Amino acid sequence: MKKVHQLLGLLMLAFSANLYAEEKGAFGAAIASVSESVDGFFNDYTGWFVSSIFYSVPVGDASFPIIVGWLLVAAAIFTVYFGFVQFTRARMSIDIVSGKFSDPNSKEDGEVSHFQALTTALSGTVGLGNIAGVGAALAIGGPGATFWMILCGLLGMASKFCECTLGVKYRTVLPSGAISGGPMYYLSRGLGEMGLGGFGKVLAVGFALMCLLGSFGGGNMFQANQAHAMLTYAFEVPSEYGMITGLVLAALVFSVIVGGMPSIASVTEKVVPWMAVLYVGMAIVVIGANIGQVGAAFSAIFEGAFTGAGVAGGVIGALIQGLKRATFSNEAGIGSAAIAHSAVKTKEPVTEGLVSLLEPFIDTVVICTMTALVITIAGLNAAPYPGDGLTGVQLTAASFTQTAGVFKYLLALAVILFAFSTMISWSYYGLKAWTYLFGEGASIELVYKVIFCVFVVLGATIQFGAVIDFSDAAIFAMSIFNIAGLYFLMPVVKKELQSFVARVYSGEIKKYD
Amino acid sequence: MQEEPGFHIDLSKTLIQDGPKFLSHTVVISGNNAYLRPTISSMLFCFIYIVVGAFLTTLASYIMITSGQLDLAIFIGGFGVAIATFGVTLIQPFLKRARFDRKKGVFDNGVDRNVKLEQILSLQINNKVVKRKQALNYHCYELNMLTKNGRRINVLNHNSINQILIDAELLKNFLKIEVDDMRREIVL
User: Fold this and answer.
1) What residues make up the domain containing B160?
2) How many domains does chain B have?
3) HSE (CB half, 13 Å, CA atoms) of A400?
4) At CB < 8 A and 24+ separation, what contacts does B17-20 make?
5) Nearest to A395 by CA among A98, A131, A15, A43
6) For A450-500, what is each residue's pLDDT tens digit?
7) In terms of C-beta density within 10 A (0-12 exposed, 13-18 middle, 19 or more buried), how is residue A320 classed?
8) Can you say whether the dihedral through the CA atoms of A77, A79, A80, A82 is positive or negative?
């Protein structure tokens, strides 16, 4: 019995906050060593991947990553090609969301309305990108990065419209009966219809591979890492104890994705939108409490955007950070949203595209701007911006806490739930890519799910930059294959849009007021 | 069955919107009883929540005792209690053994009002697609019973059609009633 007591004591000691003393215990040192080894591994074996994805060319004083230009140019081209759809068809999008194109008498069982679809998608979009991503962008790019984030959000609406329309149009029913869609399918099937089957297949496989990496990186390790970083900030939990956070998160993720427990998934789906409301509510409180400083904050944003004062690389430096974090947050052009939207119940693919284009607006233009205002108002992020001080989720949390100390606890709650729900979403995207590459099957899928859970623990444990860089690179890499295909497929989307609009104006598609 | 005018029961409609993506129960016949036995794997997944919740709650207590860090203890403890409570809630239906008791002549599932076995008219197998917003959609199947006064009660609800077919056959012989396969094509 005594031995059991000793064992329990040892176990608790290993996991206890008692070790939060400055002196690192053996456990802390062991974790730090594991962390360093894994980071070294990532640096050695994925460094080439990261530097290839973020290959930069000198522009002024800054190095401009080509991938950022790739996303920005694509968003601008889609905007022009679809006739500024995000502005000209904004009213139509809102009408679809508010159910004006749905017959109130013909709602079938289990059908999800467009409004429900939007709130669902938004709850998936509002997450650490809005909290940690904005913190990271402003820590390096200064307040001016916000302006470029907003611009990226506005242009990204067209990219999202294009990819989500295609996601629904080319979705397929798997042998299991599950509906599957996304870039893997529209790249292979869509380009196949154009006689470019081989090229489409290459793009689809490339996308699926990158999506897999993205699901382990930005959709998993980054989330777990920032969840623990938030605990470190709010409760001074040492970063070495990330493994415990990782193990708890991994156990819960495992139960959802392996166990298939419907209840926890339902609970998450219900709780996360409220977390988004809580986050926005807190931001409104901070902005409201400091309303006199909002004008100055906007001035700092505009001045910073065009002067780049204090930012390494000046204006270009601010632009790069803004664009990178906006893309990470709203995922426009990445292709992941097309996977999520493809399961919607609709006969008109373009309606889902029109609904989805509201996401970057709400996510980036509205919510990221709110976060940026909170950070700028708090003034903890002063020029110059080397990015080696408070950054990411910690900068955002510290800025919120300036107004009310209790916000750090609420933010910790929101961050953990956001991280959890984002991991669940990305496990879904990753699994889609995995089944596309390796086929469906219980054991094949289990392999992916177990690997995914291992990465949760790794992400929370690792404290160094290589893992974060890899997470970033993997997400951006998805856009290479996705956007290449979108250029070929955009006429299909345009045709769908023109047909839908024509039928609305002719009265073939009824509008219910 | 003679359909009374103005009294229509759609037997192809499922009774429960959600359902697990695994085999949750099997039917076991033992003498005069036919009961639903939960599978070990389904119980294990519920235990994950209880174990994680208990761990966090214990950790919170330990933090409180050793370092007195109230805010962290409340935060971790709160999560722990919520997760453990969730696990306990989740495991409840697995612990209630629904049974058809020929001796007492009733079906008791611990949820609905008991049903006299003689009132049970037939069993139906229904299918549905459970749509997850953040995961793959999947098929799920129900075994439902229809009583003479028009009540429909769910007996089984999981995603193993093979086991549902086996269990339906077992109950059919046990209750001496018919089983209708009411599965339909589901098009999204």
Assistant:
1) 103-181
2) 1
3) 29
4) B17/A110, B17/B128, B17/B130, B18/A262, B18/A263, B18/A266, B18/B130, B18/B140, B19/A262, B19/B128, B19/B130, B19/B140, B19/B141, B19/B142, B19/B157, B19/B158, B19/B159, B20/A260, B20/A261, B20/A262, B20/B140, B20/B157, B20/B158, B20/B159
5) A131
6) 999 999 998 888 766 777 788 788 889 999 999 999 999 999 999 999 999
7) buried
8) positive
Q: Is B151 inside any structural domain? A: yes
B172 falls within a domain: yes
Interface confidence, given as ipTM, is 0.77
Q: Does B40 touch chain A (CB under 8 A)?
A: no
Residue located via tokens 């008991």: B114
The answer to whether the CB atoms of A425 and B134 lie below 8 A apart is: yes
3-state helix, strand, coil in chain A (%, to 5): 75, 0, 20
Counting the structural domains of chain A, the total is 1
- Give the pLDDT confidence of A142-198 residue by residue, as tens digits: 899 999 999 999 999 999 999 999 999 998 876 666 677 889 999 999 999 999 989
Please check whether residue B41 lies inside any domain of the structure. no
User: Dihedral through CA A163, CA A338, CA A145, CA A39, nearest 10?
Assistant: -130
Query: What is the rounded CA–CA span in Å between residue A276 and residue A417?
Result: 10
Express the helix, strand and coil content of chain B in percent, nearest 5 each.
Answer: 40, 30, 35
The C-alpha of A451 sits at a distance from chain B's nearest C-alpha, in angstroms, of 17
**Which chain A residue's Cα is nearest to B55?**
A248
Any chain A CB within 8 A of the CB of B17?
A: yes
